[in-house]
Structures are given as structure tokens and as C-alpha cells.
Design goal:
- The structure is a single chain.
- 32% of the residues lie in helices and 24% in strands.
- It is α/β, with parallel strands linked by helices.
- The protein has a single domain, classed as Peroxisomal Thiolase, Chain A, domain 1, CATH 3.40.47.10.
- The strands form five sheets. Strands 2, 5, 6, 7, 8, 17 and 18 form a seven-stranded mixed sheet that branches. A five-stranded mixed sheet has the order 1-9-16-15-14, with helices on both faces. A two-stranded antiparallel sheet has the order 3-4.
- Helix 3 links the parallel strand 5 and strand 6.
Length: 379
């Protein structure tokens, strides 16, 4: 789908990461204690540091922190927010929607529309922007708060070196609003649904609910990686082939829509899958090294839906940008690209989220819900 919008701008972006982190240098045991093998992986993939949540911290916690930081720094009236969108594959609950939970925590007005987006993961931020822009263009909203977050580190076992070493946790908050300025933006989104099973968590939904028969089941692959049926399953080679094929097409498509040249774009914010993929795409499209980065991957890892927004936020905090291209690819072999004017966008440094004292542990949560059920309708 190709869409063009005008008189809509991104007013500001903020982001948070949890305070705890893992440095790849401390995981040499997973590389056969071979420093050369570790260094080779660091060089090729860009492995570095990744921030990870504790068992007390949820997607909603990170989103709330990012939202509060953005609202405070922009100094806006919360009652002017017409809609709240949360894009994630790590929602706190199957239901209610995390957006509804956050609506209550942020004390937004009751006629603020709330909904979640799920199942897209790494491409979700671009899709979330497209939804926000569409709502404003249709006239049903003037100001939309988009929150993106994935607790990607929790989607696999740490012993799984096929994927776990790549993923970190984060959240971003983006405010989109109507403007009298022309402020054109160009979106290109789509999917190759035939590849739906190349990036998937097989269990946990209605197709294969988690029951006692699989809760503790561990599967070892030929490389010795540990899998659970509710973990992310990623066919790395197929994902690489898909990303390096479709992403250049998306970039060229949005540039063609806008009638601009490659050199007219100040910065290309790629989904930070890993350094190898980003560099391969950039080389194919002939994007100069000064116009893109893999810094976010090395500092935070692949943070799913929050990654491309972390990348553009990180760059905006370093220098002002006018024309930027955000490109992402994700679950369901979905993709999205947008060419957007950021000349007046406010960016606020990525902050560290510290787990507040008194947050419930996993066992305390279990006990709480047991008692909640036992109380029945008398609670």
C-alpha cells in the first residue's frame, strides 16, 4: 500500500531502556570460550550490549515511562491526546489491551480512543505511524500518542545462541499531530504472508495454547540451542534473504513517490536487525556510511518494534534532521517504509528505566491472581 499525507507532523520522540544489561564480552562461554570466535561474531553482527528487563518489569511499565517523559518534555496537555496506540508483541495480557491499561495509568480523557497492534514486531512502528497519520488525515483525531515496545530478550532462552544474543528490550513514545504546515510524508507498506512461519512463536495463541504438556518441554537443535515451543523461532537465512531483497525496493519506492534522490535524504533509519543485514542493504542501495548507522544495535540490540524509532531518536539527539527515511521489516514477512519531514521534531535522550521499589515479583503476581480468582464476584 502506498499512501501520501500532508499537514501531519511528528512532534516529538522519547525512549527508555531497562537499567540491567548484558555485554556480549561476558558471554564468551557461549562461544566455546574462544575469543577469536567471539570477536568474529562481534565484527560481523555488531554484537555489543543489550538491555534486558527483570521479572518485575512489563511492556506497559516501559511504555508508561517513555510516554511520561515525552509528555513532560513537550509540555502538552494530556487532554489534547485523541488516541493512544500501543504496538508490541509483548503485551502485558491477552486482554485487556495494553493501551487501555496505559490509558488508566496516564489518566487520559475518557473519549481518547485506545487500541493495540500486535503480530508485526519489528515493522510495527512504521505501521503504527501509518495508522496515526491516517486517523489524523480522516479527521477523527488531531493528536495521537504512539507507544512501541517489545521485551524481545524474553522471547527466547538465553542458551539459544541462534537468537537470544541479538535481542534487547526498550520502549519509545512518539507524538503525531495535525499541523498547518504542508509537511508531506510518504508510506509504503506490505507483506509476503507466504513466509508467515519463518518468524513465529508457535505456542501461546489459540492454535497451540500453553498447557502442561509443553510448559517445560525443551528442544535442542543440531547446534545445541535450547528452544521452547512458546519461544521466537527464526529461520535466520530466510529472514536475511527476505530483508535484503525487499528493503531496497521499499526505499526506492518511497523515494520515487516523493520524487527525491538518495542524496536528498539526511538519514536512513533502518530496523536494527543486526549489522550484517543493515550494511548489506545500505551497500545494495549505495547509501553512504554517513547517512545510516548500526550504533543502536551495538548499544541496545534488536528491540523489535522499538528499534527503528530508537535509531531515529538516537540520531536526532546527535544532530537535527530534515528529511528521513524509516525502513523496517518484521514478523509475517511484513515491511514498511516512510519518508518523513522531521525538521521540527523534538528528540529527548534515551533514558534508563529503574524498577521502582515495591513492584511485584513473579511469585507475588501469581499469589495476587490466585487470591483474585478465589474472591470471585465478591471482590
Amino acid at each position: 500500500m502506498k499512501t501520501v499525507f500532508e499537514h501531519i507532523k511528528i512532534k516529538g520522540i522519547a525512549g527508555v531502556v531497562p537499567e540491567s544489561f548484558i555485554n556480549i564480552d561476558d558471554e564468551i562461554e557461549f562461544f566455546n570460550n574462544d575469543i577469536k570466535l567471539l570477536e568474529r561474531n562481534k565484527k560481523i553482527l555488531g554484537l555489543g550490549k543489550r538491555h534486558t528487563v527483570d521479572d518485575k518489569t512489563t511492556c506497559a511499565d516501559l511504555c508508561e515511562a517513555a510516554a511520561r517523559d515525552l509528555i513532560y518534555n513537550l509540555d502538552i496537555d494530556k487532554d489534547t491526546i485523541d488516541s493512544l496506540i500501543v504496538a508490541s508483541t509483548s503485551h502485558d495480557y491477552f486482554w485487556p489491551a495494553t493501551s487501555c491499561v496505559l490509558h488508566g495509568r496516564l489518566n487520559l480523557k475518557e473519549d481518547c480512543t485506545c487500541f493495540d497492534m500486535s503480530g508485526l514486531a519489528c515493522s510495527a512502528h512504521v505501521y503504527g505511524l501509518q495508522n496515526a497519520f491516517s486517523m489524523i488525515a480522516s479527521g477523527c483525531a488531531k493528536r495521537v500518542l504512539l507507544l512501541t515496545s517489545d521485551l524481545a530478550s524474553t522471547h527466547s532462552d538465553r542458551r539459544n545462541r541462534n537468537s537470544n544474543m541479538l535481542f534487547g528490550d526498550a520502549a519509545t513514545a512518539t507524538l503525531i499531530e495535525k499541523t498547518d504546515e504542508e509537511c508531506l510524508s510518504y508510506f509504503c507498506t506490505g507483506s509476503r504472508g507466504k513466509g508467515w512461519d519463518q518468524l513465529i512463536a508457535p505456542a501461546g495463541g489459540s492454535a497451540l495454547p500453553i498447557r502442561a504438556d509443553i510448559a517445560d518441554l525443551e528442544v535442542l537443535d543440531s547446534a545445541g540451542n535450547v528452544w521452547h515451543l512458546y519461544d521466537d523461532l527464526m529461520k535466520g537465512l530466510e529472514v536475511f534473504k527476505f530483508a535484503t531483497e525487499i528493503t531496497p525496493q521499499v526505499i526506492l519506492s518511497v523515494l520515487d513517490m516523493a520524487h527525491v534522490k538518495l542524496e536528498d535524504v539526511d538519514y536512513f533509519a533502518f530496523h536494527q536487525a543486526n549489522k550484517q543485514i543493515v550494511d548489506s542493504i545500505a551497500r545494495y542501495v549505495k547509501i553512504p556510511k554517513t547517512a545510516y548507522s548500526t550504533e543502536v544495535f551495538s548499544h541496545y540490540g534488536n528491540c523489535g518494534s522499538a528499534t527503528v524509532s530508537l535509531d531515529i531518536l538516537n540520531k536526532l539527539c546527535q544532530q537535527p534532521l530534515k528529511l528521513a527515511c524509516l525502513i523496517a521489516f518484521g514478523v509475517g514477512f511484513s515491511w514498511g517504509g516512510v519518508l518523513v519531514d522531521l525538521h521540527d521534531t523534538k528528540a529527548f535522550p534515551i533514558k534508563t528505566y529503574k524498577t521502582p521499589k515495591g513492584k511485584m515479583s513473579r511469585q507475588e503476581k501469581i499469589d495476587y491472581w490466585i487470591n483474585y480468582f478465589k474472591a470471585g464476584n465478591n471482590a
